[in-house]
C-alpha cells in the first residue's frame, strides 16, 4: 500500500457500523503528506510498519482538519495515545503490531496487552475465570480463557467496520485470572464476587473470559452492588433460569434465576436472544416471561438481519446500566463446536456481530463471553470467534471513540 490512507475520508461513528458522508474539507485527494516510510502488509490490514513498534507517519496539515478531530487523527496515524481519557493521565496501552513482533512471542495475554495485578488506573480490563465446575454436560470450559487469549493474537487495534479505536480511547489491560477453587463451586462464586468488587470499585469495566455460565451470577452480584439492578443483553441457546439440578441451586443452568431471586436484574430490561432446543416442559420460557424478560427464540432470527431487533433493544434498555452476557453456544455449532452444551440451528457469527454492535451507545457496565471448551474444537475456531466477540464488546463500551 503506497500510502497509509488512500484516500483519506472522514469516518464518523454512526450505528450500525456505517459512516456519515465526508465533510467537503475532509474529502481529500491523495497528497504528498499522505506518503510515509510505513510499509504495510495486506495480511495485517495495512496499518503496521516494518520500522518500530510505534511507527511514525505524516498526517494531514492541521488547517485541513476540524479542530475536534485533529488530535485524534494525529494520534491514530502515529500510534500515539489520545491526550484525554477518564481513568488516569498515564500513557494508554497499545497491542503490538504483528509486523514488528511475531504473534507467538511474549506472554499469552489478551491481544498481547500488558498484564497487571489489579484494575487500578484502567478504564476496562480483560479478566479470566477458568471455572467449569458448574457444567451439566461436557466439561472443559476451565481452559476457555487460555484458548481465547491464544487466538486473540489475530485481533488488531482498530475496528475497520465500525470505526472504533478502543486502544486510542481508553486504557485497557489484562488483569489475569480469578483464583477459583475447582473443588468448591460456592467458594469459587465467593472468590469471583470479591475479585469483581475490587475491579468495579475503581470504575473499571470488566470484560470476562469464561469459564462456564455459573460465573455470571457472582459477577452480577458485584456489578449490581455498585450500579444497582442492571439490564441484560443475553445471547445464548438456553435461558439459564432453571431452579435446581440434582438438588443444587448453583450451576451453569441457574445463574439468571439466582439473579432474579436477589434483585440483581432490572427484569423489564432483560432480552434473551437465540434461545432454542428441546425442553422438559411444554412452555419452558414461562418463568422468564412472567418476570418481564423478552425472549427471542432462534427461529425468530433465522434468515434475517438483527439490526431492527437491536433498535428495539436499545429503546428498551434506555440510559440505565446494561450488562452483556454471551454464551458461545448461542451460535450454531457449525461455527462454534467447542462448547459443552451445543444446540443445532443457532445464530450465525454475523448475527452475533449485529447484536453486539447494536449495543453501541448503551451504558454498558460489564461483559462476558462464556462456555468456550477448546477440547471439542481442535481448529481453534470457537476460541477465535470468542476473542473477536470480546473485541467487539470492547469497541462498544462508553468512551470508545471512532477514527
Radius of gyration, in angstroms, nearest whole number: 21 Å
Query: What's the CATH architecture name of the domain at 118-396?
Result: 3-Layer(aba) Sandwich
Q: What characterizes the major β-sheet?
A: 8 strands, parallel
Average pLDDT metric: 85
Q: Which percent band covers the strand fraction?
A: 5-15%
The neighbouring-strand order within the major sheet is 4-3-5-10-9-6-7-8
Please report the number of helical segments.
9
Number of strands: 10
Unreliable sequence segments: 1-68
> Helix amount, in percent?
10-25%
Shape: globular
CATH superfamily of the domain at 118-396: Ureohydrolase domain
- CATH topology-level fold name of the domain at 118-396: Arginase, Chain A
Q: How would you spell out the order of helices and strands?
A: EEHEHEHEHEHEHEHEHEH
Q: How many angstroms does the end-to-end distance come to?
A: 19 Å
What structural class do helix, strand and pairing data support?
alpha/beta
Would you state the CATH class of the domain at 118-396?
Alpha Beta
Amino acid at each position: 500500500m503506497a500510502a497509509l490512507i488512500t484516500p483519506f475520508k472522514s469516518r464518523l461513528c454512526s450505528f450500525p457500523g456505517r459512516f456519515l458522508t465526508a465533510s467537503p474539507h475532509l474529502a481529500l485527494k491523495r497528497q504528498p503528506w499522505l506518503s510515509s516510510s510505513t510499509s504495510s502488509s495486506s495480511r495485517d490490514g495495512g496499518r503496521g510498519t516494518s520500522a518500530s513498534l510505534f511507527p511514525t507517519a505524516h498526517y494531514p496539515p492541521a488547517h485541513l482538519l476540524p479542530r475536534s478531530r485533529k488530535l485524534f487523527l494525529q494520534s491514530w496515524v502515529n500510534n500515539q495515545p489520545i491526550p484525554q481519557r477518564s481513568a488516569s493521565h498515564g500513557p494508554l496501552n497499545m497491542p503490538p503490531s504483528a509486523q514488528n513482533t511475531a504473534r507467538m512471542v511474549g506472554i499469552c495475554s489478551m491481544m498481547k496487552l500488558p498484564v497487571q495485578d489489579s484494575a487500578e488506573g484502567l478504564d476496562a480490563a480483560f479478566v479470566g475465570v477458568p471455572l467449569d465446575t458448574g457444567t451439566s454436560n461436557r466439561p472443559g470450559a476451565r481452559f476457555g480463557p487460555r484458548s481465547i487469549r491464544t487466538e486473540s493474537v489475530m485481533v488488531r487495534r482498530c475496528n475497520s467496520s465500525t470505526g472504533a479505536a478502543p486502544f486510542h480511547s481508553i486504557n485497557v489491560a489484562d488483569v489475569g485470572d480469578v483464583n477459583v477453587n475447582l473443588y468448591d463451586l460456592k467458594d469459587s462464586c465467593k472468590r469471583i464476587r470479591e475479585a469483581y468488587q475490587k475491579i468495579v470499585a475503581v470504575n473499571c469495566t470488566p470484560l470476562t473470559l469464561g469459564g462456564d455460565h455459573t460465573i455470571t451470577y457472582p459477577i452480577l452480584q458485584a456489578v449490581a452492588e455498585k450500579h444497582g439492578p442492571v439490564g441484560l443483553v443475553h445471547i445464548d441457546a438456553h435461558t439459564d433460569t432453571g431452579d435446581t439440578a440434582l438438588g443444587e441451586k448453583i450451576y451453569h443452568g441457574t445463574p439468571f434465576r439466582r439473579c432474579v431471586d436477589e434483585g440483581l436484574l432490572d427484569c423489564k430490561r432483560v432480552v434473551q436472544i437465540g434461545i432454542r432446543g428441546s425442553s422438559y416442559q411444554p412452555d419452558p420460557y414461562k418463568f422468564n416471561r412472567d418476570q418481564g424478560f423478552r425472549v427471542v427464540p432462534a427461529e425468530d432470527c433465522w434468515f434475517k438481519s438483527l439490526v431492527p431487533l437491536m433498535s428495539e433493544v436499545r429503546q428498551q434498555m434506555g440510559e440505565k446500566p446494561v450488562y452483556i452476557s454471551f454464551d458461545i453456544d448461542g451460535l450454531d455449532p457449525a461455527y462454534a463446536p467447542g462448547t459443552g452444551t451445543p444446540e443445532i440451528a443457532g445464530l450465525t457469527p454475523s448475527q452475533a456481530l449485529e447484536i453486539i454492535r447494536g449495543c453501541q451507545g448503551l451504558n454498558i457496565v460489564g461483559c462476558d463471553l462464556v462456555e468456550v471448551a477448546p477440547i471439542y474444537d481442535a481448529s481453534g475456531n470457537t476460541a477465535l470467534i470468542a476473542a473477536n466477540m470480546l473485541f467487539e464488546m470492547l469497541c462498544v463500551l462508553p468512551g470508545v471513540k471512532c477514527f
